[in-house]
Amino acid sequence: MEIKENNLTLYNSLSRKKERFEPLHPGFVGIYVCGPTVYGDSHLGHAKSYISFDVIVRYFRYLGYKVRYVQNITDVGHLQSDADEGDDKIQVQARLERLEPMEVVERYTRSYFEDMDALNVLRPDISPRASGHIPEQIEMAETLIKKGFAYEVDGNVYFSVEKYPEYGKLSGRSLDDLKSGTRVNVAGDKKHPADFALWKKADPDHIMKWNSPWGSGYPGWHLECSCMSSKYLGETFDIHGGGMENKFPHHECEIAQSEAANEKPFARYWLHNNMVTVDGVKMGKSLGNFITLKDAFGKNSPMEIRFFILGSHYRSTLDFSEEALHG
């Protein structure tokens, strides 16, 4: 199909400026967007993110590009704290609901896609799960150890941020700032407070665990996206997207481990949508101020929600209230 003439520019979070879009491969666009961690029903913040990227995918297809849209499902490894502390969010929910972790995953994955279907959000071409890509994650961790970018301590494998000079290039944070802003007692087996987990040793009561060269454990949250994006889009691809809150540490860590392992640029364009707020405070499951899409659909049609979200710029915050929705 012929590509329609266009002058498409994208704001690239990596360069902090608008850039003319040039695909890596003529006529093809590879897009990876961080999907949900499926331990509860989706909320309006999820809707803003995935509606925003739905528009981007639709526009590329309108222009005539063949698009491969990959959006993962995080079903293991996302801990309660970004500092590699706490329990796995899905395992916590499984205990609360007295279910197997994979029952929780299946329930809320189905719920997520039901909500996205209602919002007329196109389904991704590929929806890989972290738990289905354990061998790839172990292999990348092994590669990083061999190349000197990672180290193992008592069954835990960490990426050494000091070995990667460009760490911080996406978020603009320096290692000195990270070190001074970190609590002294965080993960005492790390060489630097900002080092992040590639593989975590599993406690005896940890349900989701796999055998590895370092013993029984589970992958770090950041590793899954590097492995799944490169598997389905290549080691260098066009666009990586996600919420603004994922820029650091998640996306910063993705770049570091991917470029260190593969010795080539990772994603060429980074797009970040901003968040939904309630009374000026970020909406989120962990903050307890979220409005689930199922609750929102009880008062408003899904198309009202979609058009409300599309009424704001994707990089701007959107403050939610019933008055604003019907204003």
Q: How would you describe this structure to a colleague?
A:
By secondary structure, the protein is α/β, with parallel strands linked by helices. The protein has a domain at 24-131 and 221-325: 3-Layer(aba) Sandwich (Rossmann fold). The chain is built from 10 helices and 13 strands. Strands 4-3-9-10 form a 4-stranded parallel beta sheet, sandwiched between helices. A 4-stranded antiparallel beta sheet has the order 5-6-7-8. Helix 1 links the parallel strand 3 and strand 4. It is globular, with a radius of gyration of 20 Å. Its EC number is 6.1.1.16. This is Cysteine--tRNA ligase.
Please specify the SSE layout and strand pairing.
Blueprint: E1 9-12, E2 17-20, E3 28-33, H1 44-63, E4 66-71, H2 89-97, H3 101-118, H4 134-146, E5 150-153, E6 156-159, H5 175-180, E7 196-201, E8 217-219, H6 221-233, E9 237-243, H7 247-262, E10 267-273, E11 276-278, E12 281-282, H8 293-299, H9 302-310, E13 318-319, H10 322-325
Parallel strand pairs: 3-4, 3-9, 9-10, 11-13
Antiparallel strand pairs: 1-2, 5-6, 6-7, 7-8, 11-12
Helix pairs in contact: 1-9, 2-3, 4-6, 6-7
Task: Describe this structure in a few short sentences.
By secondary structure, this protein is α/β, with parallel strands linked by helices. It is built from ten helices and 13 strands.
Tell me the number of strands: 13
- Which residues sit in consecutive blocks of at least 5 with pLDDT less than 50? none
Share in helix: 25-40%
Q: Do you know the CATH architecture of the domain at 24-131 and 221-325?
A: 3-Layer(aba) Sandwich
Protein name: Cysteine--tRNA ligase
GO molecular function, one term: ATP binding
Subcellular location: Cytoplasm
Cofactor: Zn(2+)
